[in-house]
Design goal:
The complex is a heterodimer of chains A (258) and B (241). By secondary structure, chain A is of the alpha+beta class. Chain A is built from 10 helices and 8 strands. Chain B has a single domain, classed as Serine Threonine Protein Phosphatase 5, Tetratricopeptide repeat. In chain B, 53% of the residues are buried. Classes of the chains: A alpha+beta (258), B mainly alpha (241).
Chain lengths: 258, 241
């Protein structure tokens, strides 16, 4: 491990975690480093536009080069690129917001978000990170991940996010079995009170799960009386179509716990 | 715990007195409280939405305003005669008209408070304390949030704690506002804001803000009610002899 690179990374993370800008002294205190060291690192990062200094206050904030890197990360994500059309079509058909996510450790990272097509004010959730066991996307993916990875995720921390979050290992195992049986995962206010989700897993040419696509919205609309059959069909169809585009066999029906 | 001896514990009554036992907040006062909340929510709608846009989905102000507008219409038509009935009507209306997390959470809070007040025609601080406890329990059952998770519980729980100590509306209002401000440096652990991880730090929680608003409105309504009664009482005495 190269120490200075590690320190530079910690500076970037510290600046990324605060909405307020940080000065050299604050950063030095927070990271437990000498001010001169922090200053040197900041100057180097600034030369690469990874941080920038506020001219008025002298404090530092993240720089514009990071935006390019972030966008490059998202653009390089093949799943996101390929999902654009399918996600748009699903949102139009179901009249609800669509999320596309990948599993990143124990969390679902949202790589694409299509707004509910009703002209209401909505906030882009791309980049959001949701514990896998509390959302439809996560349950859809984990139901088809290999048994070792699944066991590890089931043994990991399973925080309670609402009164309805499934946090027991047995309950989640039964839930994952139900996902495989139904072909879609359903979430009923398990991550956010009042919100629900219906999602299906995405597979590549090896039959391995590479992500999930699904609907997210108010529980009273998405699950009026359980998940409506036509909504489930729309989600499955989008997932099948997108999987085929990612190279999955036809039909893209995977083996559970493969 | 000598805090119950603090002056002006509850407008117009002393803890343990007969007046307290009889209760002083009646259905009319509850109606006026809900009215003050509705007015304040209208004024703060954009502010709440702004707070929510930073760490949520930018609908808290609109949702709360829509919910309370519906509540005012519904209780205007209703003949609910007790504070408990009024709060239960408010809770049911909220659940059925408000989307997002606010509907189920505030709906539950009002329903549980209404249940706790039972058939009482009016209530004093002891019964209010029971109602607040029931609200907090309901909110925590639905939302699983604890103090420090950056939610409405951060305003509700300290307000309840302060009221329990002093039985003073002003104390509850101050504690709720303090709890609301204390959410700013916190990292959210519940709700949509928690998806942002460390990026939720530095923003005031919209739910704690609307909860603090309700305590401020409650104090305002109870004080206004008290001064009205006082004025009416003085007039009666003056003209009666």
């Amino acid at each position: 491990m190269i120490q200075s690179v590690g320190r530079a990374a910690r500076i970037l993370k510290a600046l990324g975690s605060e909405s307020a800008r940080l000065g050299v002294t604050e950063l030095a205190e927070r990271l437990g480093l000498a001010k001169a060291t922090v200053y040197g690192l900041l100057r180097t990062l600034e030369a690469h536009q990874l941080v920038e200094q506020d001219l008025e206050t002298g404090k530092y904030r993240l720089g514009p080069a990071l935006l390019q890197l972030g966008n490059a990360f998202l653009d390089n994500n093949e799943l996101r690129t390929r999902s654009l059309l399918w996600a748009e079509a699903l949102a139009g058909r179901a009249r609800e917001a669509v999320h596309v996510g990948v599993l990143y450790g124990p969390n679902v990272l949202l790589v694409h978000h299509v707004f509910r097509p009703d002209n209401s004010l909505q906030i882009l959730q791309v980049g959001a990170s949701i514990p896998w066991h509390a959302c439809a996307l996560g349950k859809a993916m984990v139901a088809y991940t290999d048994t070792d990875a699944q066991a590890e995720l089931l043994a990991g921390p399973l925080p309670r996010l609402t009164g309805r979050t499934l946090t027991g290992r047995d309950a989640l195992e039964a839930e994952l079995a139900a996902v495989v049986g139904r072909g879609v995962a359903v979430e009923d206010q398990e991550a956010i009170v009042g919100e629900a989700g219906i999602a299906a897993a995405l597979f590549d040419h090896r039959g391995a799960v590479v992500g999930a696509i699904g609907l997210a919205g108010p529980v009273e609309r998405l699950l009026p009386d359980g998940p409506p059959a036509e909504t489930v069909a729309a989600v499955k169809e989008a997932a099948r179509g997108l999987s085929r585009e990612l190279g999955a066999g036809r039909p893209a029906v995977p083996r559970a716990g493969a | 715990m000598t805090a119950a001896a603090v002056a002006v514990p509850w407008p117009g009554c002393v803890p343990g007195s007969r007046r307290e036992a009889a209760g002083i907040v009646d259905a009319a006062c509850v109606r006026s409280w809900l009215g003050v909340v509705a007015t304040r929510l209208e004024a703060e709608r954009d502010f709440l939405t702004q707070l929510d846009a930073a760490i949520g989905d930018a609908d808290h102000g609109v949702n709360m305003h829509r919910g309370f507008t519906a509540v005012m219409v519904r209780i205007g038509e209703s003949e609910d005669a007790t504070p408990g009935q009024l709060l239960k009507t408010a809770g049911r209306t909220f659940v059925s008209t408000v989307g997002g997390a606010a509907g189920p959470l505030y709906g539950t809070a009002f329903l549980q408070a209404g249940e706790a007040l039972g058939d009482a025609a009016s209530f004093g601080p002891r019964l209010l304390l029971d109602a607040l406890r029931a609200s907090l329990e309901g909110v925590q059952r639905v939302g699983a949030a604890a103090v420090g998770d950056k939610t409405m519980v951060d305003a509700l729980s300290p307000a309840l704690g302060a009221f329990e100590l002093e039985l003073r509306m002003g104390g509850a209002r101050e504690a709720a506002a303090e709890g609301m401000r204390a959410t700013i440096p916190l990292q959210a652990r519940k709700g949509r804001a928690s998806y942002l991880g460390p990026r939720s730090v530095g923003h005031q929680d919209p739910g704690a803000t609307s909860t603090a608003l309700m305590f401020a409105a409650l104090e305002q309504a109870v004080l206004a009610d008290r001064s009205q009664r006082f004025a009416a009482g003085t007039r009666r005495r003056g003209s009666g002899t």
